[in-house]
Structures are given as structure tokens and as C-alpha cells.
């Protein structure tokens, strides 16, 4: 065990429902003996990808902002867990922007193998998280050694903190983290 786990919380709302799931995932991963770091995109300056592809030649993005540090953390992590709210049946815009900006990792020898996703949506139906899952699978497909190792579909939590009442989902996130 003792893997380097990076959790990226993409919600900009303080104590968001997806962040509550991320905390439970982190607690489980830590209790299993892993080294866990959580990064929140809240307050970060992450600009849109320009599509210049300079990163493919240099291994670094031409844009200098907070994404430089996040990309390096992603490169070094053995496990990554993304936490996102579901907006219009898709991942948050800030998560999509972050994944686009992680293009510098495409040609790199990254440590990550297992990718996890925890989602929180106001809609309770199981399919509410299909969009974020599909989008993340597209990103993962660019890394032949990586795989989507697990998902928590946290449906039915729209208001801030409402996830606290969905103990089954919190337990699911905890157990998924603990199983790393």
C-alpha cells in the first residue's frame, strides 16, 4: 500500500457536496495507510487552454498560472480522485478546463494508474453522473496505463451540505478510498 493519492476538488463552493464526498474518500485512503493530499480549485487562477500545443514539445504549458503546480502534483500521484458537482449532466466547467490544461501530461511518464471520480448532483437518478464519467473516460483514454477504478454517484444532493444526510454515499466514498 502506501500510495501517493491526490484528490482534486473542483467545486468552487465552500463545503460543497462533492467536497464532502472527497473528504470521505480522503479519510478512507489515509486510514488505509496512503499519503493523501487534497487540492481545491477554489481560489485558483486557471486560464483556458489556448490549443497552442507548446506543452507537447516542452512538457510544460505556455500559460503560467496555478495549473503548473497542479499538473506537477498530478504527474507524481499514483492515484487521482476527482470530485465534481454535476452541472447540466456534465462535470463542472472548472474541472473540464483543468483537464484540458493537463495536456502537458499527455507525453509524460505519469505515475498515476488508478483514477477515481466522486460526483454530487441535485438529480437523484443514477444516470445524472453519466456525463462526467464519459468525459473523464475520454481524458483517461489518453493515458494507456491509467484506468477508471471507481465512481461514486452522489445523486440527490442539491443544497449546500445536503450530502451530509446521504450517509450511504458518504460511506461509499470512504470505502472506495479505503480500498486503495
TrEMBL record:
<dbReference type="Pfam" id="PF03358">
    <property type="entry name" value="FMN_red"/>
</dbReference>
<dbReference type="InterPro" id="IPR029039">
    <property type="entry name" value="Flavoprotein-like_sf"/>
</dbReference>
<protein>
    <submittedName>
        <fullName>Flavodoxin family protein</fullName>
    </submittedName>
</protein>
<keyword id="KW-0288">FMN</keyword>
<dbReference type="GO" id="GO:0016491">
    <property type="term" value="F:oxidoreductase activity"/>
</dbReference>
<keyword id="KW-0285">Flavoprotein</keyword>
<feature type="domain" description="NADPH-dependent FMN reductase-like">
    <location>
        <begin position="4"/>
        <end position="112"/>
    </location>
</feature>
<dbReference type="InterPro" id="IPR051796">
    <property type="entry name" value="ISF_SsuE-like"/>
</dbReference>
<dbReference type="InterPro" id="IPR005025">
    <property type="entry name" value="FMN_Rdtase-like_dom"/>
</dbReference>
Amino acid at each position: 500500500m502506501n500510495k501517493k493519492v491526490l484528490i482534486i476538488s473542483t467545486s468552487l463552493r465552500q463545503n460543497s457536496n462533492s467536497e464532502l464526498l472527497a473528504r470521505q474518500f480522503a479519510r478512507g485512503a489515509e486510514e488505509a495507510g496512503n499519503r493523501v493530499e487534497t487540492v481545491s480549485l477554489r481560489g485558483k487562477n486557471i486560464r483556458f487552454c489556448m490549443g497552442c500545443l507548446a506543452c507537447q514539445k516542452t512538457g510544460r504549458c505556455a500559460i503560467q498560472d496555478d495549473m503548473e503546480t497542479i499538473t506537477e502534483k498530478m504527474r507524481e500521484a499514483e492515484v487521482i480522485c476527482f470530485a465534481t458537482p454535476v452541472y447540466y449532466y456534465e462535470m463542472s466547467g472548472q474541472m473540464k478546463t483543468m483537464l484540458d490544461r493537463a495536456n502537458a501530461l499527455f507525453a509524460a511518464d505519469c505515475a498515476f494508474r488508478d483514477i477515481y471520480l466522486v460526483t454530487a448532483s441535485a438529480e437523484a437518478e443514477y444516470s445524472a453522473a453519466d456525463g462526467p464519467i464519459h468525459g473523464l473516460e475520454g481524458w483517461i483514454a489518453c493515458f494507456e496505463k491509467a484506468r477508471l477504478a471507481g465512481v461514486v454517484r452522489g445523486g440527490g444532493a442539491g443544497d449546500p451540505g445536503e450530502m451530509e444526510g446521504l450517509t450511504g454515499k458518504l460511506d461509499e466514498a470512504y470505502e472506495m478510498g479505503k480500498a486503495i
